[in-house]
Design goal:
Blueprint lengths: L14 E6 L2 H17 L4 E6 L1 H6 L1 E6 L8 H25 L3 E5 L2 H13 L4 E4 L11 H8 L2 E4 L4 H6 L5 E3 L14 H7 L8 E5 L4 H19 L5 E6 L5 H8 L6 E5 L2 H7 L2 E5 L2 H9 L3 E5 L3 H10 L7 H6 L6 E3 L5 H13 L1 H18 L4 H9 L9 H9 L1
Parallel strand pairs: 1-2, 1-4, 2-3, 4-5, 5-6, 6-7, 8-9, 8-11, 9-10, 11-12, 12-13
């Protein structure tokens, strides 16, 4: 890693630390950076991110892949590198004295960094609230102590956090502002180099290597079982934090065509008829695309057992949490087997009544999220301005009643 010369902003141009650690956070960071630059063209950014942050102009001294892990056992294996990144970013912040820090998601890493930044007198804006409403609610005290502005992306989070002393604002959901592809179905498949005449299932195995290792082979096997009942192809958006070569090796020799696409999740969902989706942000992307889905999730057994002791919500998928019911099937841990995935996906895809019920539920969730503008509101908060969401507090209060 090249050494960088320390120094603050140039003239009156603000200078910001940005830290994002996986594909979804990288996209959010990039959108927020662009929104800041629309307001202040000379603003500069440095820190940690991936391809999207770099494309937006962030000087990524650390790469997002260095900390893109999940689960207890996975973190232990990468701990030396994670701690080195934490120490390095803390040191850089003290040297460069940014006007503020934008920390995106990645709570186990970023809350530790936030505490160090706050101690150094650096203003902290945290984007995407940790799921304290689901587990480890005691973290709200730490958030209140070290975060100046917490940007929430789900409407029920703001009142929950404000009641616990956190300065939280519902900024809207950033996925709402993502442009939807103009092509769908066969035209979208052709644009991705897939067979336009074949029905397609999208496989979204996640953005972290161990997550993909646990889910992708089972997803492929489920798609093969569906293909045994009629012609079918699989299309897979490959996150930039994942080794595409490894996915290609896992997909080789399967009993159905498998098309790997670099990124382009929205385009892949537009091309697909249904989707198998790793629990996370991608479930909301699939909802906004209007595609029937089955949510799957696997971690190490140690992580799973600890999670079962601590998690206090009825559902894992954010789509189901927002709906307030089991809207889409969830296959978790040992239940996430190929045969179960194939059967569940067949139900929400091929059963016309179930599909109509699902899509009606999607519309209910979409209405709860409000309109676009999340990135602009985050930019305003980073620059020290007020950025309320019209009607956000009313809707948020209704959702948690």
């Amino acid at each position: 890693m090249a050494n960088r010369e320390a120094g603050g902003g140039i003239g009156d141009a603000p200078n910001f630390l940005v830290v994002a650690g996986e594909a979804s956070g990288d996209l959010l960071a990039a959108a927020a950076v662009r929104a800041v630059r629309r307001r202040v063209p000379g603003a500069r950014f440095f820190g940690m991110g991936g391809d999207d942050a770099r494309a937006a102009g962030v000087e990524t001294i650390y790469d997002a892949r260095e900390v893109a892990v999940m689960g207890i056992t996975e973190v232990l294996g990468r701990l030396p590198g994670i701690l080195a990144a934490l120490r390095g970013l803390s040191r850089l912040a003290r040297e460069r004295r940014p006007d503020a820090a934008l920390l995106v998601d990645l709570p186990d890493f970023n809350l530790r960094l936030a505490r160090r930044l706050k101690a150094a007198g650096i203003r902290v804006v945290y984007y995407v609230s940790p799921m304290v409403w689901a587990w480890r609610p005691g973290r709200t005290r730490r958030i209140a102590a070290c975060v100046d502005e917490l940007c929430c992306i789900y409407p029920f989070e703001e009142p929950f956090l404000r009641e616990r002393g956190v300065r939280a604002t519902y900024v809207g959901n950033p996925l709402i502002e993502t442009p939807r592809p103009t092509a769908e179905g066969p035209a979208a498949r052709a644009a991705l180099g897939a067979d336009p005449s074949l029905p397609a299932v999208a496989l979204l195995p996640g953005s972290r290597e161990r997550e993909v290792e646990r889910l992708f082979p089972a997803m492929l096997a489920a798609a093969e079982q569906l293909a045994a009942q009629g012609p079918l192809q699989a299309i897979v958006p490959v996150a930039p934090t994942v080794d595409a070569g490894r996915l290609a090796r896992l997909a080789a020799g399967r009993r159905l065509p498998v098309r790997l696409v670099s990124g382009k999740t929205a385009e892949v969902l537009a091309a697909a008829d249904a989707a198998l989706v790793a629990s996370g942000t991608a479930t909301l992307e699939t909802l906004l695309a209007g595609r029937p889905m089955v949510v799957v999730y696997r971690v190490s057994w140690l992580s799973w057992l600890v999670g079962r002791l601590l998690v206090r919500v009825a559902h894992v998928a954010i789509v189901n949490l927002l709906a307030g019911r089991r809207l889409v099937p969830e296959l978790l841990q040992g239940a996430a087997k190929p045969a179960a995935m194939a059967e569940a996906l067949r139900g929400v895809w091929r059963d016309a009544g179930r599909r109509a019920e699902l899509l009606a539920g999607y519309q209910e969730v979409r209405e709860k999220l409000g309109g676009p503008g999340a990135s602009e509101r985050v930019a305003a908060l980073l620059l020290g301005a007020s950025a309320p969401v019209d009607g956000g507090e009313v809707e948020a209060a209704r959702l948690v009643q």
